[in-house]
């Protein structure tokens, strides 16, 4: 690890509390899980949301209305972006049909506002990430993410009750999201 001798720099290594990484496993086909995740995240409705939020909206009320129009009473975590990581493994291995691995960036800009207000350094983990990975033998799917309460908390052991509560709610919302996706994928496969 590089060290700094610059007197104007203070470097800190923050150790995460356990547990901080969650993995769900299901025998469901990965393509089915991905389709249900996209639906749950309102992927089709959020095209260009970041540009809309940053360039067009002029007030908090417009911002809240826009997010509300997307979620429309459904799941409140929305799609931001995704990267098909399996494409990278194709280049390395030459396997034209590697196990699917998709990295998602997702969240809710309204939650992000509140969390960043309480801890600006949480921006390093916003939007949250989630990975959907097909088993190597294609026998099922793993869904994994860092607990927001672990990676967005105040560094240096500072305690903030309001931030803790916000992050615990976000932890629950992520687990609820994953379970809704698995349940709806299982129902469609039955």
UniProtKB/TrEMBL annotation:
- Span of domain DUF302: 102-148
Bilayer-crossing residues are none
By its UniProt entry, which InterPro entries does this protein fall under?
A: DUF302, TT1751-like_sf
Signal peptide coordinates: none
Protein name in the entry: DUF302 domain-containing protein
| Upper taxonomic lineage | Eukaryota, Fungi, Dikarya, Basidiomycota, Agaricomycotina
